[in-house]
Amino acid sequence: MALATVWTSGPWAAGIGAAVTTLSGLAAERMRPPGEAADPRAAGELLRTAAGRIPLLRQVDRPELAGAHPAEAPAAPPAYIRRDAEPGLCAALERTRFVLVVGESTAGKTRLAYEVARTRYPRHAFVRPLSRAALPEALRIAGRRRRAVLWLDDLEDYLGAGGLGAGQLASLDRAVVIATMRVQEYRRYDAREESRLTGSDRDAWRAQRDLLHRAAVIRLPRHWSRAERGRAAAHQGDPRIGAALRAGERFGVAEVLAAGPELLAAWENAWAPGANPRGAAVVAAAVDCRRAGLRRPVGRAWLRELHAPYLAARGGGDLQPEPFAEAMDWACAAAYATSGLLIGNFGAGFTAFDYLLNAPGNGPVPDHLWRGLLPLVEPADAYDMGLVAHQEGRLARAVEALALASRGGVPGAELPLAIAIGDSGKPRRAAADLAGIAHRRAGRLGPRHPDTLAARHQLAFFVGESGNPLAAASQFAELLAEVAEILGPDHPDTLAARHQLAYFTGEGGDPRSAAHQLEVLLADRLRVHGAGHPQVLATRRSLIWFRPGEPAHAETELGLLLAEAEASGGIGPDDPHTLAIRGSRAALAARAGRTAEAAEAWAELTADRTRVLGEDHPHVFYSRLEWARALLAGDRASEAAAVLTGALARAETVLEPGHRHLRTARELLARTAGRDPAPGLDPDGGRDPLAGRDPAAGSSSPGGRPEGSRGASGPG
User: Fold this and answer.
1) How confident is the model over 53-111, as pLDDT tens digits?
2) What pTM does this model have?
3) Do the Cβ atoms of 687 and 660 come closer than 8 Å?
4) 3-state class (DSSP) for residue 683
5) CA 204 to CA 675: how far, in whole Å?
6) Backbone dihedral region of 579: left (phi > 0), alpha (psi from -120 to 50 degrees) or beta?
């Protein structure tokens, strides 16, 4: 019996696989009257049989029904090739009810999990929600069945506002939970990525990290081992497997079977004049919707609106673009009888094939996509988008999205919103907002509840950032005693509070005491985290900054630290910690009188921070100020004035009035004109440069946000 007649697709035909999409999805496109709108937010459904029943796993006879990427025709899926990770997955299912298979797109995650699950649990109900909206119903059904597998393919789509939580997971007494996740999404929650965050709220990420930590994680490489390729060779009679093996080791076998490289090439080639440039623009818009943090499909009407700037940027009419209907047909058409570049249908909306999300050359999500998408989404979507923007350092976007989420009543949105506001250059407003949040949490949860302590931590940090380091140090000292007692001495929140106490102690005029605190903290962090952990690197940088000694020795230590951070096993050249170390080195060069070297270093750092964070980030403003300061010190006043004039004009539209960067910029600009600055107008330059305060890789959040210059001190 044909697949489409056995299974109901509901509004999410895309979730069932390209076979259903091809039969029903594109047909729906053609049958929809022109101009009639469809709601991409239609309630999600569960995978069911044509009779409306939840199937047993033995009835789920095609891997596409579990979410696997379909392989090239003929219709029958290729033989399953046993993966090296299979014994580990089986062992994990023996000891736990929650397993997570992590790997790159088209690595074969879903096929591996599907084959193991069918073998182990043939009589279990297969409960697969086809969207996050269907998750509550899936949890209800899985929780009441005596035998059930809750199937969460692409787990990232079920996290966030209204998504799966640790409490819901714990309520499933008997059900087995099997999930898959792209490695790029999983990395958002590991310790290294956590330390990169430039302000994401501890509360917002804690629930999702805790949930993932409950899973037994099975990692599946994209490239197949020699043993796996040997097992595949026994099936070379299938032309699809034979072709995949002939592709060599550049691509994984599953990757080739799903036509991932071919689809990517088709997208790239479609931009040619007279080819399918409008279709390529539609795909680009769908890809960037996912990269911006949108977890659900995008409607046809949205794509019609959102794709236009992509097409215009590549040449518009000169590309001889096809009509929009033709572009949609091309983007949805199954390539090599596998999947289309877009997966979905009119009623459910469309999702970009996940192989495209990490394509080489993908730059930052453009502003036009963000501006066009945010007014269309629901508050829960905006919450997800805001957290992604905050993690990536796009602070204005984070504030805009989280404000929409907060106005829409998304639980927990107010704290990340306050942090994003402070990080974007408004610390006094953030401190005022956080005082209210901390007061409300104390009344609702109690003064010693971890969520109340987290709000107090943020409040203390932004009090210090507002220009009162002594008050911040006092608040952190009081907070530290409670956090250590309640959470334990080695808890990330406790270690973070110790770091901030040391930082603001140094900022308040006692660098020797700060250095002593950091020496003790470094020993504890090495014991807890191990060498090379981003927070260990941040603490080492702080210690170098505050510890008294010869500047030449400090420069040598920073050089070693930078090499370690940039190395292949380190955190990478664009990590905020790495950029902060470069800033510290530039500051020491300026202090030593090597003004030309310092100016060049700050210019390069400004360019890199602009590329990574965007030109309106406070870290970028700080770098420009120090660049101008070095130029002034080298008698290059006209160059300094040019740097400052543009920076000041832009900063005045972003930073709150009275911000220290604005005061510093005006003082330095006065110097370029040969005027004496007004007393007290150089909060950064008038202090010992070793106490400079770029918030570079730093952060206030206990455990969840990095502690660079704000938390690891020193000009970043």
Assistant:
1) 999 999 998 888 888 876 554 456 778 888 889 999 999 999 999 999 998 777 788 98
2) 0.76
3) no
4) coil
5) 48
6) alpha
